[in-house]
Structures are given as structure tokens and as C-alpha cells.
Amino acid sequence: MKKEEKTNIVISFILGALVAGSGVYFGMSSKKGGSDNEYISRLVEADEVIAREASGTMDYDKAVDGFISGGLDKWSHWIKQDSETENMTNYVNTSGTALASGFSIDIADDGNILVTNVEEGLAAYNSGIRTGDKITMITGNDVAATGYEHIANKLLGKKDTTVELTIDRNGEKMDIVFKRDNCYIYDVEQSFINDDIGYIKVKDYENFANDEFRDAVSNMLDCKGIIIDLRNNGGGIVENAVDMCGYFCRNGSVVLHGEKIEDRTVTTPEQDYLLTTKVVILVNDKTMSSAEIQAAIMKEYYSDTVLVGTQTGGKGVFQQNVKLESGGTLRYTVGYMTVGDMECWNGVGITPDVVVEMDEELIGTDKDTQLKKAIDLLS
């Protein structure tokens, strides 16, 4: 293939991704460097120079992503379509079975299941599985012949159930009965401090987060204070974050603004309970997006709220995903968010009422000074 043809294919791929996602026509021509858009012409010319003179090989996946994120904002990306193998690996490794049993996997070069890690003392280790093992058979089915992406999930199952495996360990074959452990993966965790202070850790706003948050607050109706820990919470579904605020206020809302879409307001619903207790919300620089929405609504609409920690991450914009006909997904920024009289916090973050600097590694330890400050404020 000639360099000219390769260049036009590459640029067409970039443009095809953008055209499929936005419907914009750039006036791309099939001639060398031929475009009605000077910026696209520069891409073509730069690619030709790189192909001819630059050291190394161009990574066009990164080039497409860079074209979007560099040209729009850091939250916008081209996301390469995950393969079935990658999807299966992620599915198994983030499951309650893998986490509780203490193992992780990937595909081996020969198509079998490679055990990439085993934690000593947990179910996989106790069943005889070790790091570096290859699982070649599951319940009598050949892994490589069946296909990794079709059989790896057979490792998963309910607590105390078993599955028969054939293991290849450095060329030696052995049969193992793997007795599984399992755990429910919570988006929201709850506990009590000194019996009269409720503690709710919101890790994200996906899956069953709303149900789990409702369960938590229903157990804390008589508490004299509640700590809501949003540290290291990168966000999630906006509506879920707003719904959680409905247990404390009836009129809270976030407005989603956009240049090319109509503004949309998401308002707190009427929940089963309306608490009147004092609330301390813990935040840090990894509190972002929907977590910042929850912190902002509580601060603006629930007077007994105190924010403690460090400046939040400052992601005050929201994105939309569009699958592209040319492959992958285009994730692009649609607009920005505001809460009450608070200005959009994008790129700035939300300043806590009480600033407590602390290393992230200390979260959850006996040196968690941010948590200690929250307890002091509620005691």
C-alpha cells in the first residue's frame, strides 16, 4: 500500500469516527493533502512526515483519542471497542467470586486461562490454585477448544459451591476441586461510630447504590449525626446522586446546561424518610462529578451540612457516549452543571467548610484525621 493511500485511510478513520458521532462534514477530499479544512490538511501532512521520517511506529488508536481529547477537553475520548476476551477478563476479575476467593486471571498465549494472582489464605489458594497455573479444563470442557471468552465465567458461582479444574503447572497436569467463596459487592457501605453516629461510604452511583443508601439511612434515623464519605468517589449516574439527597431535602436540584441541548433539571424526589440530623460530608481531590453534585446539593439545600477534607476534583461537566460505525465509542462533553447559587465547579472544585489536609493512604486507618474531625464535629 502506498504511503498516500495509507495516510488517507488513517485520516478517513479519524474523520469517520467524528462524523459518525457528530454528523459534521469536514470536506475531506481523496487527493493528497486535499481538504477544505486546513486543520485536517495538517493532520494529513503531519502523518506523511511521521511515516516518512519519524522514529518509531504511529499508534493510531492513541492518535484518534488525542485528536478528540486534545481538541475538545480532557474528559472527551475515543474508546477502543473492548474485545470479548477483555470483557470476559474484566467480568471475572471484578466479580464477587474472584474478589472473595482471592484470584485473578487473563488469557494465556495458548488460549488457556492463566492465573495471574492468588492471595494466600483465601478460597482459591486453599483449593490448591497457585499464581502462574494454567487452567486447561473446567468441568471436563477443554478451555482452549471452547474458547476463553466462552468458558472463563464458569469459574464463578455461589459461596461453597465447587467446580472441577484441570491445572497445568510447569508442564505437570493435576486435577483440583475449587471450592468457591463469594461476596456481595456493595456500592454503599454502612456502619456506626460510638453507637450514635452513622457512617455511610458511597463508593459510586451505579448498580444498586440507591437501594443500599436507602437501607443505610433507614438504620440511622435515631443517630445524632451522619458522616457521608465521598472521598475517592469518581461519580456515576447523576440521578442516583440527586436521589440520595432526597432523604435530607425536598427541593434540591442540579441543572445540566448545554450549548446544543436544552437545559435539564434533576430534582430530589420525595423519599421514604426525611432526616433532620446533622451531616458531615468527607471529600478530597478524587471526589468528582456526581459525587460533587451530592456534596453541592447537600451544602446548598440542607443547612445542617458541613464539608470536611480537601478541595474536590473539579469535574463539573457531563458526557454522552455514541457508538461509532467505524468502531469504538465516542465519549464527548455535552455541557456543564450548576447547583443552586453555586457557580460551576469545573476545573476549580468545591472548597470544604473545614479543610483537613491528609495523605490519601491514611483513609480508613487510625490516622484518618479527616474522619476524626468529622466525628469531633458530631460529638
Would you write up a description of this structure?
The chain is built from twelve helices and 17 strands. The protein has three domains: 3-58, no CATH class; 84-179, Pdz3 Domain (Roll); 188-378, 2-enoyl-CoA Hydratase, Chain A, domain 1. Strand 15 (317-323) and strand 16 form a beta hairpin. Residues 1-13 and 15-35 have low confidence and may be disordered. The chain has 379 residues and is an alpha+beta fold. Strands 2, 3, 4, 5, 6 and 7 form a six-stranded antiparallel sheet that branches. It has a six-stranded mixed sheet with strand order 8-9-10-13-14-17, with helices on both faces. Strands 1, 11, 12, 15 and 16 form a five-stranded antiparallel sheet that branches.
Number of helical regions: 12
Distance separating the two termini: 73 Å
Estimate nothing, just give the exact number of structural domains.
3
Strand element count = 17
CATH topology group of the largest domain? 2-enoyl-CoA Hydratase, Chain A, domain 1
* Spans of at least 5 consecutive residues with low confidence: 1-13, 15-35
- Helix/strand class: alpha+beta
What is the helical fraction, as a range of percent? Answer: 25-40%
Features:
six-stranded antiparallel β-sheet; 2-enoyl-CoA Hydratase, Chain A, domain 1; 17 strands; 12 helices; 379 residues; disordered N terminus; six-stranded mixed β-sheet; Pdz3 Domain; alpha+beta; 3 domains
Q: What's the SSE blueprint?
A:
Layout: H1 3-22, H2 38-53, H3 60-71, E1 77-79, H4 84-93, H5 96-101, E2 103-107, E3 113-118, H6 123-126, E4 134-138, E5 141-142, H7 143-146, H8 148-151, E6 162-169, E7 172-179, E8 188-193, E9 197-202, H9 209-218, E10 225-229, H10 238-245, E11 253-258, E12 264-267, E13 278-283, H11 290-301, E14 305-309, E15 317-323, E16 329-338, E17 354-355, H12 369-378
Parallel strand pairs: 9-10, 10-13, 13-14, 14-17
Antiparallel strand pairs: 1-16, 2-3, 3-4, 4-5, 4-6, 6-7, 8-9, 11-12, 11-16, 15-16
Helix pairs in contact: 1-2, 1-3, 9-10, 10-11
